[in-house]
Amino acid sequence: MTDNARRPCEYCQAAIELITLQRVIMSSGHIHVAWICTACGRYARKSKQFIAHAVIEVWEQYGKIPPRDELPIFADNRLPEVRCFVCGQLEAQLHHFAPKALTKYLGDAELWPKEYLCDEHHQLWHSVLTPWMPNVSSTPTAIEIFKTYY
């Protein structure tokens, strides 16, 4: 059984017939997809709740599931009144300036400054300061910064 397979709820042990794919809309507006237990109303998994985007794309491509934006909404975490600290764009997400991945070295990320950033500025921050992290891609601005200062 793969990590992405539908299986009984890890909380209430509901049968797989009661486990459905639903979407979670993050504060940035990005959509994640997860197995949700319709019996207890929780994520069906205790860890790794979200299914990898690449897996969802393949499932959509081969017609195994409907498009993401047609799945039922389990949670909508958008905060329309929250704006990006840099540009003022709506639907920003809370950003930790000490990456949680570096907790071992920097201590508790919650004790470091945090600010709301739009997706563009959040990605830019990571592409310049943490390019080694998974799912971080270089942006033209990040490349320009590297060429200028490094």
Describe the structure.
The chain contains four helices and six strands. It is an alpha+beta fold and 150 residues long. It folds into two domains: 61 residues, no CATH class; 57 residues, no CATH class. Strands 3-2-1-4 form a four-stranded mixed β-sheet. It has a two-stranded antiparallel sheet with strand order 5-6. A hairpin with a 5-residue loop joins β1 and β2. The chain is elongated. The protein starts with 18 loop residues before the first strand and ends with a helix. The model has no long low-confidence stretch (mean pLDDT 85).
Q: Which structural class is indicated by helix and strand composition?
A: alpha+beta
Summarize model confidence as the mean pLDDT: 85
Would you report the number of β strands? 6
- Shape type: elongated
Helix content: 10-25%
- Roughly what fraction of the amino acids lie in strands? 15-25%
Provide a brief overview of the structure.
The chain is built from four helices and six strands.
What order do the helices and strands come in, and which of them pair?
Layout: E1 19-25, E2 31-37, E3 50-51, H1 53-61, E4 73-76, E5 93-96, H2 103-106, E6 114-117, H3 119-129, H4 140-149
Parallel strand pairs: 1-4
Antiparallel strand pairs: 1-2, 2-3, 5-6
Top keywords for this entry?
150 residues; alpha+beta; 2 domains; four-stranded mixed β-sheet; two-stranded antiparallel sheet; 6 strands; 23% helix
